[in-house]
Amino acid sequence: MKRVARIVAGIGSSHVPAIGAALDNGKTEEPYWKRVFSGFEKSEAWMRKTKPDVAIIVYNDHASAFSVEMIPTFALGCAAEFPPADEGWGPRPVPVIKGHPALASHIAQSVILDEFDLTICNKMEVDHGMTVPMNLLFGKVDKNAHWPCPVIPLAVNVVMYPPPTGHRCYMLGRAIRKAVESYPEDLKVVIFGTGGLSHQISGPRAGLINSKWDKNFLDNLSKNPQKLVKIPHIDYMREAGAEGIEMVMWLIMRGALNDKVDEVYRFYTVPASNTAVGHIILANRSRAARKSAAKSKRPAGKIKRAAAHAKADRVRS
Amino acid sequence: MARERHDYDDIPGTFVFDAERSRQGFGINMFCMSLMKEQNRKAFKANEAEYLKKFNLTPEQTDAVLKRDYNRMLELGGNIYFTAKLGATDGHSFQHLAAVMTGASQQDYAAMMLGGGRSVEGNRSRSGKNASSKSIGAAAGKKPAAAKRKAKSKSAKRK
Among A35, A222, A300, B67, which has the minimal tally of Cβ within 10 Å of its Cβ? Predict the structure, then answer.
């Protein structure tokens, strides 16, 4: 049997900078922050158990690596490593992030030929948009230690309007999945969609939160992503805040997963600083389950469900 | 040339950083970007007006920066992730800036966030489009006309 890489799960997570600051300044036990961090304890346990070989992290840069001189819509990090950026208070005390240049280049080649015109970054610093979700899922990692797996950053422009549409993001996710599944090495890959959920941090309407919208978003992300891909930008901005439009990045993650997924875990709290914190883990049903379903004469759905129950590393929430 | 009209101009209290503002605000944002370096922060603090001359700002933009009028900076093409660097140079937390932009005290702003944030009700539209979006499949439900009027009067006004 030919061994190829596969995406096993998708993770959605906010990337609020204040969460990183709370972690770096030893405030995780303060009640305000404990409320946030305790929501990720099960996720950390899940990640330790899942042990991915590579993580693809979809995030946005916040005037760190990209200023207004160049604004790439999709920028894929193909470098061997990505140093944490100095965002004005010195770089965050986290290890340099190791890349996976071989898989990253393979993805670039595959998705560009699938008509997604990526920008390739062979040198790039990464900011809290990427390192905060890494901390939430991988835990606190000493500056001199190592992150548990290499990471491929995918930076999406959501700072200058218009960001790519939700549909475009979802389709890019599909193309990434196709690329991963044609990489000839047995690698377990997870993909992160980060940012959001509802928040506005600019102008007189700053502070906007829409929990009802956020809940609907998470519900549909699990069960009916096709509904989400049709949401026009104006609706994100009006309902979830000018900066809430970051949520389109979660659709890249969702597009990279199977149509049907198991929701392993979900967490939501308001606020962290100015933002609603949302988090979800969606697992693909295992390949073995899909294969046996395809070969068997029994109705596929039944086997898929049975296999999913037996094999999904379900976290009780 | 007058700014092109967009559907998102209808959102109250919001300056969407679009391609046009990105071009217009290039100088403001590159100025803010320069504040990532300690020696530039020092030079700016030593003589703000003189330092700003390097960035080809319009007189209105220079004035907004010198007065720390954050909403005006956004309106003239500044972006919040960039202007936040100016706030940091002044030693302010982000929440302080957010409070300033909303016209609230930092204490009141923090209390609002702890209470669940600013409600979207009444804050969706400048032209009365206050019904919630159907696109996400929420059980939106039409609000009674009276509640709608009340909500509208409370909405955040553009400065």
Answer: B67
